Amino acid sequence: MNVHKQIEKFKKQHENRGRLLIHCPDKPGIVASVSTFLKDFGANIIESNQFSTDPSGGSFFLRIEFDCPYLVNKMEKMLSSFSDIANQFSMSWTLTRVSDVKKCAVFVSKELHCLQELLWEWQSGELMIDIPLVISNHLDAKEVVKSFGIPFYHIQSSRDIRKQVEQEQLKLLNQYSVDFIVLARYMQILTPEFVEQHPNQIINIHHSFLPAFVGAKPYERAFKRGVKLIGATSHYVTNDLDEGPIIEQDIERVDHRQDVEGLKVIGRKIERNVLAQAVKWHIEDRIIVFKNKTIVF
Amino acid sequence: MNVHKQIEKFKKQHENRGRLLIHCPDKPGIVASVSTFLKDFGANIIESNQFSTDPSGGSFFLRIEFDCPYLVNKMEKMLSSFSDIANQFSMSWTLTRVSDVKKCAVFVSKELHCLQELLWEWQSGELMIDIPLVISNHLDAKEVVKSFGIPFYHIQSSRDIRKQVEQEQLKLLNQYSVDFIVLARYMQILTPEFVEQHPNQIINIHHSFLPAFVGAKPYERAFKRGVKLIGATSHYVTNDLDEGPIIEQDIERVDHRQDVEGLKVIGRKIERNVLAQAVKWHIEDRIIVFKNKTIVF
Amino acid sequence: MNVHKQIEKFKKQHENRGRLLIHCPDKPGIVASVSTFLKDFGANIIESNQFSTDPSGGSFFLRIEFDCPYLVNKMEKMLSSFSDIANQFSMSWTLTRVSDVKKCAVFVSKELHCLQELLWEWQSGELMIDIPLVISNHLDAKEVVKSFGIPFYHIQSSRDIRKQVEQEQLKLLNQYSVDFIVLARYMQILTPEFVEQHPNQIINIHHSFLPAFVGAKPYERAFKRGVKLIGATSHYVTNDLDEGPIIEQDIERVDHRQDVEGLKVIGRKIERNVLAQAVKWHIEDRIIVFKNKTIVF
Amino acid sequence: MNVHKQIEKFKKQHENRGRLLIHCPDKPGIVASVSTFLKDFGANIIESNQFSTDPSGGSFFLRIEFDCPYLVNKMEKMLSSFSDIANQFSMSWTLTRVSDVKKCAVFVSKELHCLQELLWEWQSGELMIDIPLVISNHLDAKEVVKSFGIPFYHIQSSRDIRKQVEQEQLKLLNQYSVDFIVLARYMQILTPEFVEQHPNQIINIHHSFLPAFVGAKPYERAFKRGVKLIGATSHYVTNDLDEGPIIEQDIERVDHRQDVEGLKVIGRKIERNVLAQAVKWHIEDRIIVFKNKTIVF
Lengths: 297, 297, 297, 297
Known about the structure:
The structure is a homotetramer.
Chain A: H1 3-13, E1 17-25, H2 30-40, E2 44-52, E3 59-67, H3 71-89, E4 92-97, E5 103-108, H4 113-123, E6 130-136, H5 142-147, E7 152-154, H6 162-175, E8 180-183, H7 192-196, E9 202-206, H8 218-225, E10 229-236, E11 246-253, H9 260-283, E12 287-290, E13 293-296
Parallel strand pairs in A: 5-6, 5-8, 6-7, 8-9
Antiparallel strand pairs in A: 1-3, 1-4, 2-3, 9-10, 10-11, 12-13
């Protein structure tokens, strides 16, 4: 079964599935209000996770996945009805339909393993996204991207023309109605303007166990320091380099036998898995960002 | 600070903390009913986890931890009031106060590492339980148990006198109002009668990654098979040997250099950690057993 | 750089690199004889690993990787010269040139993730092998194999025509001078005759943590048992199903939220990595089989 | 069996076991010379590991464990005989008897979990060392240390009297002929003079995954940064804080539910295991330090 058929099948299967993501100051009665709201619309809660930072005066976080017959028809009314509850509790919130599959633009440079992992999981139906385009400052990825039937845009980049490059990129993101961006080893720094337009919508993979080895050449520095584990970190991009909210991290054991190239080979597998995991949690609306940290439900 | 003062402090801090554990057939409105119930008693939900096996006609599982002022005074009324909701939804449920610290009897034979881990974590305040007694069919543990100020009972055991031994054990469990039993490498098989009196209240540690190496001498068999990872499994005891609901498992990497004794040394650390983790989840009421499997919230 | 150029470059770089793999009864003087032999041929030891099962009367295992100028010219003489030492110590042994890149046939059925991982690592130069052909009893892999420029052979299979199928397969293996076979989720059982012709030359991936869940449908059985970790195992194929010498195993944590399909998605990543690792160790001559177990240096 | 009997038994069993640790510039013939030397003394190699940083002009590292009848009588002659080989190849080297069990002083402050792990493994015979004394700047450990029958020295410490404190410590180390020092969460900085007298003989445990969170309060900083894994690192102490050669590291997964105290509870298990592993490798002479990194054989 090809990927587009799989996506259609997924949408069909989940046409009545919705997700509610809430973040607000903690006080009694939130869950009662929210669950009564869902009940009144005939929704059945499938999975629910809640977390409070501190019982007295802390922050409240909630993710609910529910089934609701005729969701598409009720959606408008649900949104307006929930606004009242949201106002009452000063909530940040989203209420989305699972069948609105997210559109993801992948940015890549010359290292292709993270891109390939995403394409592969996408093709096998494990990663339920649309990938309307891939953008790169190099041509290395062109062939593989096209072999998956995805438009490839080559936009050469350099420090001097960064703003102009980003104008082109933004135009494409707009044109394809992109929901979020994955930097799959895209070795360029984005401008503050670009980042600010996509809060918690740009996922990066950094090839070290952050906060160790922030910045360039982490494998070289890991080799020099003689660490016994190397890692990778996926995080939302903010304007502080490698300082954004961490979504996922993992490590592998290494020893004295690996040179820098050996570390990179091992590291590539960690990067692939960590990035794919972060994207999966993002598209399932499992992540809430709070104080530059993530709650992953 | 000694352990008994720590427990008193914990009880004081959590005197208004309650836990609700629910398992019932899934249908709409459960969360709304439960959360309205809690709200009506002035309770604030601290942590909530919910899981359904299947949106249409499956099973529903819920764990809620909440804060409720004057909980001790309200408890009786809450219990009776919740009965109505429970009946309506055909729930299996428990509603408990966190300050009712559970009483745990530890059974041990000659291998002491699991017992010691429990005693140690207990003493450092990490394991919030009462340990009113330790029972053993050998004398090896006597000294260490007494050094922690805990009564030690030596009840010799053999296949022929099993029933009689268990009578003595049951009398002690009763006398000390024990809530649950930990078999910390207690190498004796319990009778069906004994097990049936303690459904999901006996936690065992098996020194293999179940279902591999069920039964005796798992390290010897792991060595013979040449596995590259060894493990341990904590599970509730049922009347099928090593077939009870698994609570936690973990593994460590091994290689050709370890002989059986080397595997045992590595294995002991896994056993200690896996058992301690299972006990922690049990006393925090995080475990629901369903179809011989566990949901761990 | 394309993969064939990478292989040529690797051969060039390693034209003087050799590997000696030895297994014999332990007695004093083996290392002295072997290292003197290497020194006399002007070889420099790069990496050496040795292991003895038991100091008194056990088995001795040795792997040496060395650099030797003009190795290609000396090889014949080294082989005959080493025969004398080997006879003296009753050694099983191989002496090979690293630049003789091994030829690997991949057998696959309908699940393609293990095949794809191998092809991908091969293409990126991480897996230094020739893949002269892929054989399948289905057509699912045809397109992807051809996209890598590798001949694909479709040989339909069934229990009744197993011998005839294997005749065709053996003919192809012979025609392409294949050194070893990887069963990348090839869901067919091989005949004893086929297996015996390839001792320790057929690598299988089993989708469970052996010896747990030997045989069919391991993910279904893992789900039913409620394990908290799932795994995969690569092993050499013998005539006892899933009982061959284990090369590598790994696991991932799972919980009550994964259904069987969810376990399979997680499992596929483990399978891919475990199989690729086993193949890597095999082609680097790191594995010695002894008493149905592996020593992996 | 008590620990002192276990140590005596170990010594007896290993009275003919020796270890040779070598580090020198790489050139052909080293292994041949060393193995011929061992053969000439009638020694049989039990385990051997060798590593070279670079085939052409790199560094050579070798660890050999061997059995040699009447080792105690031959030792003097072996040492003098090996000197000639060592000079020829400009080796750094040690040749030791395994039955010379190392004497370890443990330094501790108020956190006792690392000390307790060491004492416990020592008592169970897993850690084959003598612990002639424990030194602390606090009294918290006194009772537990004495319960193991080990002398406890309380030396109050402060920045102002550091030199004087170290004089007392050095005197004790000398008096008890201590071979190496373990800082089991000893929260004091040692003077350069003290460190320089014990090159690669002071093992520290740092409660983070170095080089992340160098210095004070790593768990607090890990919490603030929102990492998804926390770790611990054991390393030899040098005069650069937390910058010494790393021996071992490990991590555990954490999530948004742990506060700082929760991270510490998880972290303590990692610290215990990582430190105990590092000490084990140290006493088995498995570690060679080179360019501020470790080769662990």
